[in-house]
Amino acid sequence: MMSCGPHCPTGTTFPVKALRRGRCAHGRLPRARRVCPACARAVPREYAEASSRAILVVGTDQAGKSTWLAEIVRQLSTGEIAHTVPGLSVHLLGDSSRARYANLDAPTTEPLLISIRRPGAKPVVLALYELPEDCPPDLFGMAAGVVRLVDPTRLPGVRRLFGLEPLHPTSPWAHRVPVAVTVSKLDLVWDMFDNGSPLRRPSPHGRDYVESDGLDVHHEVEAWLTRWGGVDLPSGHRCFALSALAGGYRVADPLLWLLTRFGALGVARGRS
Amino acid sequence: MGTLAAVVGFAVLTPMVLVLFAVVSVTSTAIGIGAAVRGLTRTTRVAHRVPVPGKDPAHRIYLSGPVLRDVSRCARAAVRAAHSRLLALPDQEGPESLFARLWRRQSIRNHDGPLILPPASVAGGYALGFATVVLLIAMATAVHALLAGLVVLGVRTTACVLRRFEITAQALRGITTDCATCQQRLVRPAFACECGQIHHNLVPGDQGVFRRTCLCGRRLPTLLINGKRTLHACCGLCRSPLPASAQSVPAVHLPVVGGTAAGKSAFTRAALTRLNHAYTASSLHSILLGDKHLRRLVHLYDAPGEVVERTEHLEVAAFLGLAGGMVLVVDPHARIDQKTVLDRLVETLAETRGTAIPLAVVISKADALPPACHPYAGVAPDPSARSMAARQWLLDHGRIDLLNSADNHFTQVRYFVVSSQGADVPGDDPASPVLWLLGLPPK
């Protein structure tokens, strides 16, 4: 839907199809932005017309969902990630997304809409939803990918190591979307990894996602998760580990992997 | 005896009746034709010179359609005239027809004396005469209508061809009619007659092929090659006058955007001064640039920073929908996030006309930087090298997000450093971003 502009006396909304030569039915210029027919809020055209994909960011309380979102968008929007993927640019779509990013700690189900562009590639629009671990399973049906943040301090093996009481195990998952099982707060368990661990080396730089490095990290993290226990790994998953503190460490890896699954980012098979 | 009288009577009367029938028919046909011709000449004038609602205040030309209506009216008038002259029954108001007069005389004689002529044969003669007249009228009308139709078709086809020719020629030359005041693209300019009447659709049509006559009687040319370019054009929506070159030179709209106090007005002032154009405290400046081979009517919009920083203002800033290029002024000292400014602009452009336009990024206030930190410190005065140096300077100062976003959205991006503090500070000519966006050589 579109809405009549300030020079139109009626000021009503009308379907986009009713637009005639860029004018509303009253012959005036409409407002530039499209609006939702249900709630009359602005819907960015890029989100409405591009093939947008929903990504669910799920995790327990204090798993670092908001911190990861803030860090990934900060890295994307300030261009830090462009050092990893040259030419990549991101912008937040719509004022609601910009307001949401400015206050990520506020409890809301409002998605964060971002548009990712690379030279010579179609733009990708992502809707990032931050949801609790026990969100309704039917939500996974609409998702194109899931980033599941795992707080290592809640895993039985780590708690034993730190001398903490074990917690109740979480319910297992059963869904078919690509899942990036991501261990957050890597800085807390940093000393567990020896110097040869792939987690000790930063993300490789390059135009494409480096598959070999991703697999190294995947096998390493999967082995650690198996050792720590408490995580039921779903099919079609890829394991990651990151730290969103102190400028971020391997923060973008889960998102870049999901982008390769959507075909929005190339895959480099060899090591860079 | 009786039989002989009947035979003689039949032998004499029958040729007489036949001759009388023929004479009556011929006479009635001649009288009918005369009446029809007089009916034609007595037809009242068709009132086609009246203003039509929804049309421009001009007379409709006779040969573009009203002539066909007159052909029909003439035929009907001729038939009516022949009927009233030959066949019409006695009427209190109208003149008495020949048949009615004869019939009345015959009726009187029937009372006074014997029957001389059979009334049926007289009636048949007049009816045949009337049918002959109607047939002749029909034939004449058909020929008349065919000729008039050909003329109407020719006039309308000529008007249509000339109208299409002018529209196509304007489109090929890239000339559009844009009102910079109400920031809207018009179908065509409106023209005000000296009498004050506005002609919104001054093109060849049924109100005139080469010229039209305003209701005030003045003749107005309908074609640019016919003198229309000398008329005073105005916007049909807001009635503000359009520049004299609006119909002959392609218009380019260049918004100068940036955050609050980014230096947009200082840049616009410096660019206009360099382009020999007086600066006025206005948000819109229309100037004519280029030589006669590559002339452009440039509308520079000095958009206030509040427009760019507020989405509700930006979404009604219609000039972005007309933009053929954009100047983004970046203040290196500003606290405002230039990336957010660019994001809002890109979002609004995507809603209206897309981002397939060139972008000139102008770093302003570079004169406040130490000479060693100036983007052009140690750079050769080559436009490409300077653009790369300005880009690298932004990159070194952490604006890779701005650079990548600009590169990924716009067709071409070039970087400039403009100082408003005189020629001793290294920097680009303030007019160079505008000239580059227009594809014109730098001064």
What does this structure look like?
The complex is a heterodimer of chains A (272) and B (443). With 272 residues, chain A is α/β, with parallel strands linked by helices. Chain A folds into 2 domains: 2-43, no CATH class; 46-268, P-loop containing nucleotide triphosphate hydrolases (Rossmann fold), CATH 3.40.50.300. Helices cover 22% and strands 22% of the residues of chain A. Chain A has helices spanning 45-49, 65-77, 94-102, 156-162, 211-228, 253-261, and strands at 2-4, 13-14, 30-35, 42-43, 52-59, 89-92, 112-117, 124-132, 145-150, 179-183, 209-210, 237-241, 267-268. A 7-stranded mixed sheet of chain A has the order 6-7-8-5-9-10-12. With 443 residues, chain B is of the alpha/beta class. Chain B has 3 domains: 2-170, no CATH class; 177-234, no CATH class; 249-438, 3-Layer(aba) Sandwich (Rossmann fold), CATH 3.40.50. Chain B has 12 helices and 13 strands. In chain B, strands 9-10-8-11-12-13 form a 6-stranded mixed sheet. In chain B, β1 (177-179) and β2 (184-186) form a beta hairpin. In chain B, α9 (338-352) packs parallel to α11 (400-409). Chain B starts with a helix and ends in a 5-residue tail after the last helix. Chain B: Residues 273-421 form the Double-GTPase domain. Chain B: This is GTPase domain-containing protein. Chain B: The chain crosses the membrane at residues 6-37, 126-155.
Topology:
The complex is a heterodimer of chains A (272) and B (443).
Chain A: E1 2-4, E2 13-14, E3 30-35, E4 42-43, H1 45-49, E5 52-59, H2 65-77, E6 89-92, H3 94-102, E7 112-117, E8 124-132, E9 145-150, H4 156-162, E10 179-183, E11 209-210, H5 211-228, E12 237-241, H6 253-261, E13 267-268
Parallel strand pairs in A: 5-8, 5-9, 9-10, 10-12, 11-13
Antiparallel strand pairs in A: 1-2, 1-3, 3-4, 6-7, 7-8
Chain B: H1 2-41, H2 66-86, H3 98-112, H4 119-172, E1 177-179, E2 184-186, E3 190-192, E4 198-199, E5 211-213, E6 219-221, E7 233-234, E8 251-258, H5 264-274, E9 284-289, E10 296-302, H6 305-309, H7 311-314, H8 319-322, E11 326-330, H9 338-352, E12 359-363, H10 383-396, H11 400-409, E13 413-417, H12 432-438
Parallel strand pairs in B: 8-10, 8-11, 11-12, 12-13
Antiparallel strand pairs in B: 1-2, 3-4, 3-7, 5-6, 9-10
Helix pairs in contact in B: 1-2, 1-4, 2-4, 9-11
Keywords (chain B): Membrane, Transmembrane, Transmembrane helix
Pfam families (chain B): DO-GTPase2 (PF19993)
Protein name (chain B): GTPase domain-containing protein
